[in-house]
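Backbone-to-sequence.
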């Protein structure tokens, strides 16, 4: 490593040593604690499902994104306006065509020209809309459709079915042997993030807040334009390959399957103590992966001269703040990213020991008080 880089590393170690981690973690827990409601039935089955879902699978089984054959290159806005919910659909088409490069819109053009939109009463469901990939049909509850239709239109713009496999944004699902079902949490979170980014947030539903927060931090590692492009081309494998720049396959596998596990079980109300430990373990793995990968990215930018030690320290601090240190879905509170956790992660990445300026008694008190 060049001498200049050594000096920068020493500078950032000094700065990180002076961060008030206890204050930082205390602030995080106040800002990012939230509640969510989720109803569970058939507890015994849920318990079995939790343990079945907890074990990560091998991401080497993820299929390469299929070649997308362009069937259409334009849309008739007037014909879209004539469909059910036509005003929202034509608005969506105009925004997408303006905001995204044409070479990322092949799936969008292919699907929107064959799209059917139907009314459906979702009164007995948690959903307000859905998208059926094989049939290219969006079903929407007419009462609250604006809060859901843009989300489903992004699913439509990023989903294809080929050779028995559903490729949808960052999710792959199939009943075929040898194909793993993966990426639901990241896909749902990023779909909602895009809907909010380009069409605003029409409701205060916090149930998807964890997934949206997670993909916001993931996007900071990948880059906004690149991540949007991967999503619109249904390229989960491409996302995994980008993450390999900053983490091992095992770490990536644990991260993606950890988010899927939390997507299914984080909001459960009635869980046993040993099940709560499984949820907490997944939360810690997900958050620690993000800190490690982002720190690795910043370290490489520092080594290449793209950022200074001061800039790295500032960016890393902001990133840690944005991750939070605890959440409270329903009545269960989960704490993660303690000062010692942060110390170990950052020290391991930058190759220098970062000492937290806090007495062990203070750290214990912090944990005991649930800060």
């Amino acid at each position: 490593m060049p001498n200049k880089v050594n000096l920068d590393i020493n500078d950032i170690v000094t700065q990180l040593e002076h961060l008030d981690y206890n204050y930082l973690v205390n602030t995080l827990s106040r800002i990012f604690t939230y509640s969510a409601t989720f109803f569970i039935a058939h507890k015994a089955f849920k318990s079995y499902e939790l343990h079945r879902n907890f074990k990560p699978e091998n991401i080497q089984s993820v299929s390469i994104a299929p070649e997308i054959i362009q069937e259409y290159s334009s849309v008739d806005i007037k014909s879209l306006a004539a469909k059910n919910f036509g005003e929202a659909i034509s608005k969506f088409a105009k925004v997408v065509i303006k905001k995204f490069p044409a070479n990322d819109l092949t799936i969008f053009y292919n699907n929107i020209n064959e799209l059917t939109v139907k009314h459906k009463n979702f009164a007995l469901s948690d959903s307000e809309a859905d998208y059926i990939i094989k049939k290219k049909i969006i079903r929407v509850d007419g009462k609250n459709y604006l809060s859901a239709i843009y989300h489903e239109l992004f699913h439509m713009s990023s989903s294809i079915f080929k050779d028995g496999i559903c490729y949808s944004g960052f999710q792959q699902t199939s009943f075929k042997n040898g194909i793993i079902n993966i990426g639901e949490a990241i896909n749902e979170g990023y779909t909602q993030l895009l809907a909010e980014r380009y069409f605003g947030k029409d409701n205060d539903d916090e149930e998807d807040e964890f997934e949206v927060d997670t993909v916001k931090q993931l996007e900071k590692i990948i880059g906004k334009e690149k991540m949007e492009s991967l999503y619109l081309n249904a390229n989960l494998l491409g996302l995994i390959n980008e993450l390999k720049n900053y983490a091992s396959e095992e770490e990536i596998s644990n991260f993606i399957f950890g988010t899927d596990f939390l997507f299914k079980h984080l909001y459960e109300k009635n869980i046993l103590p040993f099940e709560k430990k499984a949820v907490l373990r997944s939360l810690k793995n997900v958050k620690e992966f993000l800190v490690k990968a982002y720190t690795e990215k910043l370290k490489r930018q520092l080594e290449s001269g793209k950022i200074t030690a001061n800039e790295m320290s500032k960016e890393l601090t902001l990133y840690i703040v944005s991750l939070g240190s605890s959440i409270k879905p329903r009545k269960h509170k989960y704490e993660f990213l303690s000062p010692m956790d942060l110390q170990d992660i950052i020290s391991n990445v930058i190759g220098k020991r970062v000492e937290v300026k806090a007495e062990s008694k203070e750290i214990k008190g912090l944990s005991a008080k649930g800060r």
